[in-house]
Structure formats: C-alpha cells, structure tokens
C-alpha cells in the first residue's frame, strides 16, 4: 500500500514485533501512526519503523510501554518534521526532553498523561529554545509545580489546550500566569486540582477565548469564582463542575446570563443547586448535554423549566434525582423531542411517566432505567414496547430479567437493541 498515509490500530493486542517489521519495510507514504494500547510491541520494533519513515508527522504509542522506550526516543532524532507525539503512560527521563527540544522543532502536540518522570526541569527543557506547543496533556503528572506552568506560559503563549488533571501542587499562581500570557487558550482541564480557588478563577477569566473548562472536584471554588468566568468567558461551550459543592444557584444565574453558547454542562453532586438554578439553565438555548445527578433540591418544577427552555437537549442524566416527580418527566416527554440519551436510574418516575417518556421521545436511542422503584413490571413492558423500534441501548436491573416476557426481550434484540443487565 504505497499511498497509505494514516494507520490506526488501537488496542490490537495480538499484533507483535513481526507485524510492525512488515510496516517498517513498506508503506513509504506513512505519516500518521496510532499504536495506542498495542501492548505486545517492543520499543525496538517501533524504532525500526520510525527509521524507515523519516517524514512521519504523528505518532501515538499511549499505554504501550511500561519501561523507558530508549530506542524509540533515540529514533525521534530523525523525525525533524514530527508534529504530534503521544506517549501517555510511558516512563520518561531528562534525556527525552532534551532530544525533543533539540530535534523536533515543529512539534505542536505532546501527550505525557500519566507518564512517570515528568518534572519541572523536564518541562523547562521541553519548551525552551523554540518548540512552540499548542496542545499539552500533562494529566496526572503530579510532580509538576507552578514553575512548570511558568515555563509553558513564557515559551508557549499560543497554547490552545492544556490538560492538568490531578496536578495537585499547582496554585492560583499558575492561573495567574495563564491569564496573563495565554490569551488564546481554548481548553483547560483542572479536574481534581486542589489549588484552584476563586482568586485563581479571577485570573483565569482573562482567557476570554476559553471554550472548554473542566473544574470537577475543585472543592475550593464557589459562586464568586464562577461569576468571574461567566462575566468574561462568553465563548464557553463545555463546563464541568462535577462535585463542586460550593456551586449553587447564583453561579447558574451568572452562567445563564454570560455564557449563552453553553452546550455541555456537568452539575452532578452540586448539592446546593435548587429549582431556581435549573430554571436559569432554561435560558441557555444551545444546551444539549446536561448531567445533574443527585440534585436532591431539584423537583419537577425545575425539570419542567429546563425542558421548556432547552429544546436542543439531546443527552440528560438525572440519576438519583429522587425528588423529581412525574410532572417534570411529563414536561420532558412533551418538550424535549431531541433527546437521544437519558439516565433515569434511581428516580421517582411512575408507570405513567416512564411510558410517556419512552413513547413520546421519538429520537431516544439510549436509556438507563435501573432501580425505578415506582415502576411495575407491566410499566416496563409497555414502555419498552413503545420504544423498541428506535432503542439501541437499554440498561435494566438484572432481577427484571425474570419478570419481563421473553417476547419483549427477543423483540428488542431482534431490532438491534443491546440490553445491559445491571
């Protein structure tokens, strides 16, 4: 295949070094290679392939190597035009960063998620001297401090995407540097970063081009911090506030006023949110994906306002929202005709409510219906029959398997629906 340019073989665990040697001898036009999770390959085999393809532009070997891939790293010296390198899960050393800095001047994306050996010094060596990265994945690089972020903001001011999940040594100083120097930043993942606080969000709000911001498990932020973000970052389309217990209705009011282009929002376990906050979300016309698990202060009133306002809603997760009654689900069935995925597990919906939802939502393809204690076996039977033509996935409690008629189970499977028993 002399014209083959891109080959993705993710998770092909039966392919070994012999297979890779065939590629190394052929495919002269190969420019992009994704070998992630091919765990039977050695670094020598990949090095052999690299040596035969000096024009390679993209390499992904995430979760392939458990030891430092010495020969691969040495082979990178020949890839002068390399633009993307993903090594997630592989151990690295200072020599790796030096080789990248000296040889791969055109590199724009690097993936070092869960790589052991990533230090402040390594990041400084990586970014200094002309390498201008746009995308950096430093997920779970727990040794990094504010000094690493300073090095990035000094040398990579055109950075667009920065993933820093579980980098717990970072403080508000890092957000100050990002806000000061990285005005083009579009995506930032700060999930589970303990040092993120309201002051940090104030600094970060100067990154006015932010499109995606992930703050899940950042327990030190409050409504005040979200106010800064909502006031200045009007381009945000995706926001993750998973288990941010300091976030309540005031934050949602600010978001509904300032972030009108919001499409995806995660509020799961934000226990301070009430109907008032969910009603504010009804003013986000482009909202299509909402996770709001275990919001015990939200009732049918809030869900009704949401369904009435958010006509583009396609994915909704209300698992464990035990105080939402049928009135909310009836509104959902009537107004949310674009819903494709829904999680109603552990909700107080009844036979009537479930049948309305499953029967009226004509685009519904994926439904999670575990532990619906107010729904009878007959209610499940009727609801599943009403939606079996279009349903592709359904999740049910395993005990229900003994009570449903074999006919409905066979009908669902015959129509291509995959049933998952929980």
Automatic annotation (TrEMBL):
PANTHER family in alphabetical order: OS12G0552700 PROTEIN, PARTNER OF PAIRED, ISOFORM B-RELATED
Pfam families on file: DUF7885, LRR_6
Protein name in the entry: F-box/LRR-repeat protein 15-like leucin rich repeat domain-containing protein
Family matches, as InterPro entries: FBXL15_LRR (IPR057207), Leu-rich_rpt (IPR001611), Leu-rich_rpt_Cys-con_subtyp (IPR006553), LRR_dom_sf (IPR032675)
Residues annotated as domain F-box/LRR-repeat protein 15-like leucin rich repeat: 103-253, 257-334
């Amino acid at each position: 295949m002399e014209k083959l340019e891109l080959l993705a073989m993710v998770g092909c665990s039966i392919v070994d070094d012999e297979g890779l040697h065939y590629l190394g001898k052929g495919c002269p036009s190969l420019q992009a290679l994704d070998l992630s999770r091919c765990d039977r390959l050695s670094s020598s085999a990949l090095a052999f392939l690299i040596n035969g393809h000096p024009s390679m532009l993209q390499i992904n070997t995430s979760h392939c190597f458990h030891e430092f891939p010495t020969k691969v790293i040495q082979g990178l010296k020949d890839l002068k035009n390399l633009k993307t390198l993903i090594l997630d899960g592989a151990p690295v050393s200072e020599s790796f960063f030096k080789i990248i800095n000296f040889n791969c001047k055109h590199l724009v994306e690097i993936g070092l998620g869960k790589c052991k050996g990533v230090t402040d010094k390594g990041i400084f060596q990586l970014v200094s001297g002309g390498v201008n990265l746009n995308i950096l994945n430093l997920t779970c690089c727990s040794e990094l401090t504010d000094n690493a972020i300073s090095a990035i903001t000094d040398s990579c001011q055109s950075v667009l995407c920065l993933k820093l999940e579980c980098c717990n040594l970072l403080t508000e100083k890092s957000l100050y540097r990002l806000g000061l120097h990285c005005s083009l930043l579009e995506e930032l993942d700060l999930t589970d970063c303990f040092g993120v606080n309201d002051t940090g969000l104030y600094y970060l709000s100067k990154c006015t081009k932010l499109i995606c911001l992930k703050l899940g498990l950042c327990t030190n932020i409050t409504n005040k911090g979200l106010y800064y973000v909502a006031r200045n970052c009007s381009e945000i389309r995706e926001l993750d506030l998973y288990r941010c217990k300091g976030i309540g209705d005031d934050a949602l009011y600010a978001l509904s006023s300032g972030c009108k282009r919001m499409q995806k929002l995660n509020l799961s376990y934000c226990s301070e949110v009430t109907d008032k906050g969910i009603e504010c979300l009804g003013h986000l016309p482009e909202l299509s994906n909402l996770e709001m698990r275990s919001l015990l202060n939200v009732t049918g009133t809030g869900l009704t306002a949401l369904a009435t306002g958010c006509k583009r809603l396609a994915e909704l997760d209300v698992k464990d929202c035990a105080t939402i009654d049928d009135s909310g689900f009836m509104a959902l069935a009537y107004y949310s005709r674009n819903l494709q995925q829904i999680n109603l597990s552990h909700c107080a919906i009844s036979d009537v409510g479930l049948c309305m939802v499953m029967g009226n939502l004509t685009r519904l393809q994926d439904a999670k219906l575990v532990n619906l204690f107010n729904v009878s076996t007959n209610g499940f039977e009727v609801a599943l029959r009403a939606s079996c033509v279009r349903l592709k996935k359904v999740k049910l409690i395993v005990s229900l398997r003994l009570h449903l008629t074999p006919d409905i189970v066979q009908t669902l499977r015959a129509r291509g629906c995959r049933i998952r028993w929980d």
